[in-house]
Design goal:
The complex is a heterodimer. Chain A is α+β, with helices and mostly antiparallel strands. Chain A has 2 domains: 42 residues, no CATH class; 115 residues, no CATH class. Chain A is 51% helix and 24% strand. The longest helix of chain A has 25 residues. Helices cover 72% and strands 0% of the residues of chain B. The longest helix of chain B has 32 residues.
């Protein structure tokens, strides 16, 4: 009998979980503090392809000056993503994500404080991207590009170009 | 009273239902093991270039496995690999389930720059995995029966979470105009980091609309039809095709694999045994 009671209690908790989850799904803006925060983050993962994530993306184009010659523009993150698609190597997927992480951090910081060009996020970015600089690089040009796809139209904008000397 | 009776009947039916939870969790552990090995070089880069997080005393205790990183990435990878390898070999049990969840959450905390939805889903399954073992058997005061009930609910919890994940994803798309008019598919096809350059396709207005609605209908219907034995296999096959499509066309390897692995929980044990 005790076992049955226990099973009933667990079942009722379960029903509560399902009902509450469905409520949170159909009321995406409902917010009751920590409970909804924890629920949405840990017990109800998703949604994954939200509008803002797929309609806006950022790229970083890199050009290095070796001697007095500017090298052709490269996109390390995109090249790693293409390597993943060409070879199926999951390490390339992680590498591409890490490449993107660093310049997204800079884009976010720049968005928060547009007047500051060189900030800790930029130092971090340069530090990490040094792996992609050819030997003998004197300066680098970082071109941040925003791509938007709304109403079946593609809009590409250069957000900012930063020229930076390399030690 | 009617609800209570209904619950009793459902609970009894659930306890009688056989599920391949052992297979599901062991494949999940194998996935974590492969992910861990593949993340090795990324972990080293993160240590080198991402500033270390400062934890409080409680945080330090909660993330104790990360202390192994002080001895090098290799120490963490080797210890976690051993835990995973042993867990794959031995019977599903509370101790290894706890250790794997703990280490996996710590790994996710550390790998945050390269995480995506797959890790949230994975850790959620591993969290539920804490209650699904029935080993070691606790013979004290008839606790064994309670273990079985909790385990059965754990398996059901995994199934419900999968259904909710699909429903949430489908419902969000349904209420988003850009998904309803197909623009979302157009956007995805033109996202540099989510479109396979080997399959450059020019999607027309009609085709993006059809694909968008197929995705919406699949995700919402999955949450319902997966509960009916009659339809289950069709939706699981459709799901495998859907996630393979995401892997091939978008390169979301980890997410696709976690979702495909999750389908194992829906397979009845008898069916697998007959193969």
């Amino acid at each position: 009998m005790k076992l049955l009671k226990f099973a009933r209690i667990v079942a009722l908790l379960f029903i509560f979980h399902i009902v509450f989850s469905l409520f949170l799904i159909v009321s995406p803006t409902f917010n009751a503090g920590l409970l909804t925060l924890v629920y949405r983050k840990y017990l109800l993962p998703g949604p994954f392809f939200t509008k803002d994530r797929i309609e806006q993306s950022y790229s970083l184009l890199l050009s290095c000056q070796v001697g007095n010659v500017w090298q052709p523009v490269s996109q390390p993150a995109l090249e790693n993503y293409h390597r993943l698609m060409a070879t199926g190597n999951p390490k390339a997927m992680l590498q591409a994500r890490l490449d993107r992480y660093f310049y997204y951090q800079y884009v976010i910081s720049k968005h928060k404080n547009p007047n500051v060009q060189i900030n800790p996020e930029f130092e971090q970015l340069i530090n990490y991207y040094q792996n992609y600089f050819p030997v003998g690089t004197d300066s680098v040009k970082l071109i941040f590009v925003k791509k938007e796809t709304t109403d079946f139209a593609i809009k590409v904008d250069t957000l900012y170009t930063i020229k930076h000397g390399v030690d | 009273m009617g609800l209570i009776n209904q619950i009793d009947v459902s609970v009894k039916r659930m306890l009688l239902e056989d599920s391949r939870k052992e297979l599901f969790f062991k494949v999940l552990y194998l996935f974590v093991l492969i992910k861990l090995w593949l993340s090795w070089s990324t972990l080293e880069l993160i240590i080198e270039f991402v500033p270390a997080r400062v934890y409080s005393l409680v945080g330090l205790v909660l993330h104790a496995p990360l202390q192994l990183l002080n001895f090098g990435v290799g120490a963490f990878v080797v210890v976690f690999s051993l835990i995973l390898l042993i867990s794959i070999v031995v019977h599903l049990n509370y101790i290894s389930a706890f250790l794997i969840f703990w280490f996996s959450v710590c790994l996710s905390k550390f790998l945050f720059p390269v995480l995506n939805g797959a890790d949230l889903v994975l850790n959620l399954f591993l969290l539920i995995g804490l209650v699904t073992p029935t080993f070691p058997v606790l013979k004290l005061r008839g606790i064994t029966e309670y273990q079985k009930v909790i385990s059965a609910f754990g398996v059901l919890f995994v199934k419900v979470e999968i259904a909710l994940i699909y429903f949430l994803s489908g419902y969000d798309k349904l209420i988003t105009p850009s998904w309803r008019n197909g623009n979302a598919i157009f956007s995805v096809a033109n996202l540099d980091y989510f479109s396979n350059p080997n399959f450059s396709m020019q999607l027309s207005g009609i085709s993006v609309l059809v694909v968008a609605w197929l995705v919406i209908l699949f995700e919402i219907s999955f949450a319902f039809f997966i509960w009916f034995k009659k339809f289950r296999n069709y939706w699981l096959i459709a799901g495998v095709v859907f996630h393979l499509g995401i892997i091939v066309f978008m390169g979301l390897l980890d997410f696709g694999l976690v979702m495909i692995i999750s389908y194992l929980i829906f397979l009845p044990a008898k069916k697998l045994d007959s193969n």
